[in-house]
Amino acid sequence: MKIIDTSISDVKIIEPKVFKDSRGYFYESFSQKEFNQLITPITFVQDNQAKSSFGVLRGLHFQKPPYSQSKLVRVISGKVLDVAVDIRKESPTYGQYESVVLSGDNMRQLFIPKGFAHGYSVLSDEAVFQYKCDEYYHPESEGGIIWNDPDLKIDWMLKPENILLSDKDTNRIKLSQLENIF
């Protein structure tokens, strides 16, 4: 696996080594040993998968301590714009974000550590999104930031009229309203 640094030091892009031939392809999507050596020691405890259609925007989500989550995200099929926003108030990159196109074709993954809000927009007709978490989901710990926070200025690569949101994601707060929780 190849690790690519981003503008936020703790957020990493992972490119697997893919073996292709006339029959298709094979790649190792996760190795605990390599991940611990190349990125950080971690134990993932839950895998999640979501299927969404074009224009769906999920995010920006996080879990508050003590149930905060690191995530390793990838797209099985389709294409998304994946976004990680640093919400650690003491961090030199607080309020900055990293965005990466993840697809079934490029097979890239993104590691998002604790202290980040996460979201993605679906750019293909549909996408199957899969992610590992190092903490179980706790609904009482759920938090979020509004997807169109004017201070963040995230380009979700979608026209506003094409964006499909959950009721919950239409009523999130701005980053500037978030308490210092990390």
Question: Brief overview, please?
Answer:
By secondary structure, this protein is mainly β. Helices cover 4% and strands 41% of the residues. The chain has a six-stranded antiparallel sheet, with no helix packed on it.
Report on the structure:
This protein is mainly beta and 182 residues long. It has one domain (2-177): Jelly Rolls. The chain is 4% helix and 41% strand. It has one helix and 13 strands. Strands 1-2-10-7-12-5 form a six-stranded antiparallel beta sheet, with no helix packed on it. A hairpin with a 6-residue loop joins strand 1 (2-5) and strand 2 (12-15). The protein is globular and about 50 Å long.
CATH class category? Mainly Beta
Strand order of the largest sheet: 1-2-10-7-12-5
- Largest sheet descriptor: 6 strands, antiparallel
Q: Name the helix and strand elements from N-terminus to C-terminus, one letter apiece.
A: EEEEHEEEEEEEEE
How many domains, as an integer? 1
Q: State the end-to-end distance.
A: 30 Å
Q: Give the helix tally.
A: 1
User: Which geometry do the CA atoms define?
Assistant: globular
Strand composition percent: 35-45%
Mean pLDDT: 96
CATH architecture field: Sandwich
Low-confidence runs (pLDDT<50, min 5 residues)?
A: none
Instruction: From the alpha carbons, calculate the radius of gyration and give it in angstroms.
Output: 16 Å
Say how many strands there are.
13
Question: In terms of structural class, how would the helical and strand content be classed?
Answer: mainly beta
Share of helical residues: under 10%
CATH topology: Jelly Rolls
CATH homologous superfamily heading: Jelly Rolls
